[in-house]
Structures are given as C-alpha cells and as structure tokens.
Design a protein that fits this description.
The chain is α/β, with parallel strands linked by helices. The protein is 37% helix and 19% strand.
Length: 295
C-alpha cells in the first residue's frame, strides 16, 4: 500500500495508523511538489526516518509541478492541476513496486464538505486536491481512514498513536501548498519571497506563544505593488497579507486578535528582512463569509 504523505497532521496520522496495522507493507511517499514551505522537506524526512523510524520514499517532482502551473492564475485550475499531478506521481511510484493495490491519503470531513455536495444541494466552495476519488484508469483502491473526522479529532488520534506533540499540533497546511497563497501565477521568485515572509511570521508567533493559541497562520502574496520608502530611496514593491485565525475544527473561524505590538514586529521584520516587500496588511475577515485560505 502506498500512503500519500504531505508532512502535515492528517497524512502523518494516516501513515502512523497504517504502519501500526500493516508494518512494512506500507510505503509512505512524500512528494516535493515545489510549493512547500521553507525547510518542509527536510523536516518531514527527519520526523519519519529519525523520530518515527518509518521508511520514507521522497519523490522530487518540483519541476514537473511548477512546469504545469506556469502561466496559470485561476485558483480552481491550480488546485486541479496539483491534484492530477499528485496522482500521476503516485502512479509512477507505484510502478517501482510490485503488487501495489491501495493508495491511502489524509482526507478529512471538512475537505469533503467544501469540495462536494453533501446530503443536499450545497455548492462546491473550492476543490480539495484529495477529494473526488481516483481517475477510472487507475487500478488503486482509495483508503481514507480519516474521511469522517474533524481536525481536532485527528489530533487526539495522533497523540494516541504516539506522534510527537510538535507534529500533532502543527497548523494545517493545504495540499496545494504555497500555490494557493500566491495570487496569480506561481513562479520560483515569488515562492522564495513568500517562504521567507512565512518563516518570519511563524517564528514571531512561536516566540510570543500565539502559535499554540491559534489555528492557522500564513502569509499571502497579493501580487499588488505599492510605493514605499526605504532609507532615502523610493521603492515600488510587493504587498503581502498576514492571515491568522482561531478555530476549533476549521469549519468556522475568526481572525485572531493579535496584540498590536506583535503585528508591528511581524510587519517590521518582513519589510526589513525580505527584499521585495514594502507593505504588510492584516486580514480581519472571519469564516464565513471568507474562507481561511485565500484561494
């Protein structure tokens, strides 16, 4: 059995659960899709290979993903490209092993609710890359042990399985990664800029104690430029939006009422330390009517 591993809470719990059940019959596969946060790949490898002693296959498909995303600006198209490419990568990985019949992934109930109509005429809010089944041409049977659970329930299960608290309590990270936190086309320069800003935000939240008191936090690159002043020089650089929310299960959320001093420190560091950003704004929208992610 292959297990699609993102390094987040959901897929990590699935991998730990299945490894407990079937041992070496499980092949966890982590795909580097090129839209990960800074240090994400190294962190996942360390957790699974060193801490959990679970064998991990790393498939570097970053150039494939970025190539397919080139020139794409529509959010739904980005999500679908990433979802389809994930399937292609896993099919290629499966061919390297004999007798692979199952593919496991960490789909949660909120993913299903937002992606498909559930028990009535609800509309699709946005497609999740891990919802909707597999293409007809694939021979895998899909295994989704967490499909009826919410995030808080998954975290409790992770603790029961002995996963480290630092992993279990990680903020959610979307399957399409930073691709849906860049408004517009996804490219390497913008990804690198976003990664540096994101690290600063998370560092400041952890140092202040607000990381564990909030549900999710990230930076969005708006692809909007504005005039600024750095020293004696005029700048015309990027604007980023900081998004920090409080929630219980992700179905509803309110923006976090962070202290003004903390917001000021985050803004100052991002502008001073990340070349190419000269303005930071804070998202004070709640869910609903806004979703947590921008795309």
């Amino acid at each position: 059995m292959l297990c699609a591993l993102s390094g987040g809470v959901d897929s990590s719990v699935v991998a730990a659960l299945l490894y407990e059940a079937i041992g070496d019959q499980l092949i966890p596969v982590f795909v580097d899709n090129g839209v990960l946060r800074k240090g994400e790949r190294e962190s996942v490898e360390n957790i699974f290979k060193v801490h959990l002693k679970v064998p991990l296959v790393v498939a570097d498909a970053s150039e494939i993903f970025l190539g397919k995303l080139a020139g794409v600006t529509d959010p739904e198209t980005k999500r679908k490209i990433i979802g389809h490419t994930f399937i292609e990568v896993f099919e290629a990985e499966a061919k390297k092993h004999d007798g692979i019949k199952f593919l496991a992934q960490g789909t949660l109930y909120p993913d299903v609710i937002e992606s498909v109509s559930v028990n009535g005429p609800s509309v699709t809010i946005k497609s999740h890359h891990n919802v909707g089944g597999l293409p007809d041409w694939m021979d895998f049977e899909l295994i989704e042990p967490l499909r009826d659970l919410f995030k808080d329930e998954v975290r409790k299960l992770g603790i029961e399985l002995g996963l480290p608290e630092s992993l279990v309590n990680r903020h959610p990270f979307p399957g399409p990664g930073l691709a849906i936190r860049i408004m517009g086309e996804v490219n390497k320069p913008d990804l690198n800029l976003l990664r540096e800003a994101d690290v600063i935000l998370l560092d400041e939240l952890k140092a202040s104690g607000y990381y564990t008191r909030t549900w999710q936090a990230f930076v969005v690159l708006l692809n909007v430029k504005s005039v600024g002043v750095m020293g004696d020089n005029r700048t015309y650089d990027n604007t980023v939006c900081v998004r920090v929310v409080e929630a219980v299960d992700g179905m509803t959320a309110t923006f976090a009422h962070l202290p003004h001093e903390l917001l000021e420190r985050i803004s100052r560091r991002i502008i001073n330390e990340v070349d190419g950003i000269n303005r930071v704004v804070y998202d004070i929208s709640s869910k609903p009517p806004a979703t947590i992610e921008w795309e």
